[in-house]
Fold:
Amino acid sequence: MVEIDTILIKVASQCNINCSYCYVYNMGDDSWADMPNFISQETIESITKELADLKSAQQHPFAIVLHGGEPLLLGSRRLEFLLHSIRTAIPDSYCISIQTNGMLISGKILNLCSKYKTSISVSLDGPESIHNANRVGRKGERTYSRVIEGINKLKSHPDASFLFAGLLAVIDPTSSPHTIYNFFKDLGAPNVDFLYRDGNHDKLPFGKASFQSTEYGTWLAELLDVYLADQNPIKIRILDDIVRLALGGIGIKEGVGVTDFGIAVIDTDGSVTKNDTLKSSYKGADRFLAPWNIHTHRLIDIFSSREFADSHKLQRPTSLICQTCPELQICGGGMPLHRWKSGSQYDNPSVYCNDQLLIINKVKSILCGIQQCT
Structure:
């Protein structure tokens, strides 16, 4: 059986905003339209039974991420039923988190999350002009002020040190890394998880001129300079992971390094799917051939199947370029969705290959200089 690290539960198929770069709604896959708007009580009960069985079947703890759409559209009553149900299956030592756009954070929601030991990560791309460029409402309205209002509520809660898990930000390579970093630090974010923009060889990511260009790598290299100059920095996962890997350690999240992460997604109707970011490759890319559903199949059986094991292997690159690259142990080939190309499918280096090499080489150069000094 593939050991599971994260189960991402889609609790809402709808969203209250319309981000231009969203892989769920704006990258060509419209399967969300066939899903129930919200996860049902019956589906929650089926999931929690399976979570309890999975807990007994594997010694390694797994995390639960509540996702969407926008998961807080559930409202406090349904959210409490969901959190109470999950906590009956897994103890407080197992992480539960919510990935939200922050606009629906309320005192009641925060109290529930505190009660059931559920942390909250908020999506925020940067200062107002950067954030509002892509993260807009259904009618194009700006969302920044409401997100900041939600973050301020989160920060002011008595249990904020636990509840506020950090921020998730999509990189805008045309922005100033110095401005972005200082904004997040002034905001009081405990950490920031910067993400590459979704894209592939057929549909180049925003701001990337070609496979050979390094707009995102250059941006991260400048961010690294700002980061290292700060004597009391906030945590930046992608930079911390690359430094850790360059020193011979392991990464803590999918996207760098060669550690495999067991990831499964459960949709609002109970369907079990692959990593949902694959939706940006082509319609149905995240679907298994087997029609697995939490109502009719056991998670343990799904995770023990050949098809699930094959999808799990997709994390590791098959391209000869990657296989023979001296930086594979650090880069890991990047995210599978970034390798997609019609014809050769995922048998390609990441569209961010040269960006990865640039930031990795910069980190190694700095570490080499430090070691020489000591």
Summary: The chain is about 35% helix and 10% strand. The chain has a mean pLDDT of 93. The first strand starts at residue 6 and ends at 10.
